[in-house]
Amino acid sequence: MPQAYASALSEEQVRFFKAFGYLVLRQVFTSEEMAAISREVEQAMAQQYAHKPFDGSKRHWTMMMDEETPLHASLLEDERFLKAARQLYGDDVLGVGTDANRYVGNTNWHPDTVSLLQYGIKFAFYLQPVGADSGALRVMPGSHRFDLNDPLWGPAVRALPLEQVPAAVLAAEPGDVIGFDLRLWHASYGGGIDRRMGTVVYYHNPKTAEEVEYLRRQGEGNVNAGLKSFGPQRPFLYARSWLANPRKNPWRQAWIARLAEVGFFAAPGVVEGGWPLDSNSGASGT
After folding, report:
1. Domain residue spans in the chain?
2. What is the CB-side half-sphere exposure of residue 206 using CA atoms within 13 A?
3. For residues 141 and 16, what is the distance between their CA atoms, to the nearest angstrom?
4. What predicted TM-score, i.e. pTM, was given to this entire model?
């Protein structure tokens, strides 16, 4: 039986991640946690897509950061994820979100960023077992270091049948978590019509003017990739209640302040009601 992950990565795991861009962490969640997460995903999806219930023809996606989904919403500040993210990307890593997905069929090869200068880590976990022919994540080890603008790379990958591209296939059971760099090329094959997955995402805190600009643009990009692509009922990414940080979590407050500073919240649709918030909201727009 695999040993449960205990929130701190070993030196060997850190080296492996930096070299290859991913890690598989076994049994991060208990069976009770997985049952609670499944209930929250079911509830959130029913609410966000009441206007167009899932019929297996199109992927559904939603943020999971509100009071209605308390366990999922807490994961960004959970030491099992935050500690590992800080080991890999520095103590000032930025927590940016948790979400849920109902996938349909294959997912083609892609990274989760448009630039090597906008990066971080995504922790993904499935609500059902996944294998090579049932939607397991496939990754190209080391591809987080590839030039995303190379005119040969993307076309060469996409010219091949998805399952024939050389890759590591990361089979997983409920409770397992896969962490991968956002720049890593990844895909999935044979996932059926209702493959459920949750994620916890952290961004590198930008250090240069160019990195800051890419992070600023990412807010608008997330609106386009989430709200405009899938059309959930809620027309924003971040609720005012989350930005108010009612429990005064110091990590969350630091993330909000930095993301506000670089203009991440400024694009329409990023924040409920728009940014900046009013003075009584508990978060500052400066």
Report:
1. 11-261
2. 22
3. 10
4. 0.94
With CA atoms as reference, report the closest residue to 25 among 170, 143, 138.
170
Domain 11-261, second-level architecture: Sandwich (2.60)
Count CA atoms within 13 Å of residue 219 on its CB side. 22
Return d(Cα 38, Cα 161) in angstroms, integer: 32
How large is the average pLDDT for residues 189-193?
A: 90
- Residue 75's CB is within 10 A of a number of other CB atoms, namely 26
Between vectors from CA 256 to CA 259 and to CA 13, what angle results, nearest 5°?
80
Encode pLDDT of 243-258 as tens digits.
Answer: 999 999 999 999 999 9
CA distance 277 to 284: 7
Pick 155 or 176 by higher pLDDT: 176
